Amino acid sequence: MEKVITVVGGGATALSFLDSFITEKTNNPESQSATIYVIEKQDYFGPGVAYNEDSASNILNTKAGYISAFANKPGDFFDWLHSNPDLWEDRFPGYSATEDSYAPRPLFGMYLQHSFAKVVKNATQKNIKVVQINAEAVDVSKVGKSYVTKTSCSLNITSDLVLMACGTIPNSKIESPATLGSVVSNPYPVCKLTKYVKKEQPIAIIGARLSAIDAVVALVEEGHEGEIHVYSRSGFFPSIRGTQGRFATKYLNNEYLDTFLAENPVISLDDIITMVSKDLEYYFECNPDHEREEISLPPKAPNSIEEFIEHELAMAKKPRGWQAVLYSTNAIIERLWLALKQEDKEKFLAEYFATFMSYRVSIPSENGERILNYIKSGQVKFFSGDSRVSKEYGSMPIVAQNVDGEEIQREYGYVVYATGSPKDPMKSDSKLIRNLVSRGDVQPQQFGGIEIDTDTYQVTTSTGAIHEGLYASGELTVGNFFFTSAMDIIVRHAMKSAKSIFEQNFIASHEPSEELPVSQANG
């Protein structure tokens, strides 16, 4: 008997899920057959929002030789670049594909699109039907033992299972960026943003991490002439990636964590700091010729962003041991988060999150050099501390800050929020998630996204009940797993969710749980 799966989202998570599902099916040829519907609102399948067609100035922050959409194919992107130069060289003539280069994000999107088509073809050869649908999913409701996914174009898809693989979800729209005096909720795609804004107008960017840097670089490179003011609540700016390669840790790995958790059911922040410190010492045992850096914990926000970037650029010319150690935590970061004491989770997010993200999510030197040049020219300025955006109908937006007891107000042609996915799913631009949350069919997670069973990836309701056939993977699960945006982490969770769905529904023999009190769709 055939089972039907609906995957909401056709980006990197969906791609990795399909590839892993095919592997599970190949290893279990006598299991039930499957039809998989993939619903994607973007024009193409594979890139998703994060890697969609955009300005070539948006570059990855992971080296080309280290990134892949597949769990069992490390370095697949680099291999694809050298196997298919005819597909991309004309579009990106200035990019030289080396293992240590940072590729344009839309180029990685081309790779994902090409890979998606390849995986769909492979699925057909394995007798798995994949049906691609260009539409926006706006609701999922349980009808009997099935789930009905509704789209904005009034198409209803009935399936046994639904996987929400929505990827990055922007903030809810505020105003159209095409209108002068707009407050814009999301800078992407920056290629459109650069066409909307008036070149001479001053612009405020709220946020100072990767999306903010993408927006600033794109605007200046496309000839923006007005001042660009970047508002950072924490005052931190991303670190700049050094020349180090991958590092095999001694303590921050699954084997050591298994032993530790067997004796300690929970982990404290002090335990994690100890593991990081021990692995940093181990790094220098393995690399005695590498220079040590003084890292203060907790660090203080820089007094001068210009001096900070200059220092970072100097250090980024060398291997940076602390970066090698921190980046290695990708392999176990959700295990650390799940085992961390509740009070320490809250303390970390309240006191150290901005610091961690500035260290952990670094940028390539070329973007650091660009930002530094913009600052020295006087076109880009940074402001730290809390800020407030206000705008009356028909007026220009204002950003206000309290400086030494005095409120400073600045008027802008545009204010652009570059703050990533909202923590509260009800503040997102997803009608699907807002509908599910408003009915109680899914439960917002305390630390962001929605609540799931972290073993099975099944979604839980506002009453704590588990949906037998509704799953989530990717950015929607950020509160459960803490850090979900790195490609290797996306791939790992997609693989685990595919394994869970396959074992629970295609080969496993298990008793169905009690019927869930979830909303019914109108037949």
UniProtKB/TrEMBL annotation:
InterPro entries in the cross-refs: FAD/NAD-bd_sf (IPR036188), HpyO/CreE_NAD-binding (IPR038732), L-asp_N-monooxygenase_NS-form (IPR052189)
Domain FAD-dependent urate hydroxylase HpyO/Asp monooxygenase CreE-like FAD/NAD(P)-binding: 7-168
Species of provenance: Sessilibacter corallicola
Pfam families the record matches: NAD_binding_9
Protein name per its UniProtKB record: FAD/NAD(P)-binding domain-containing protein
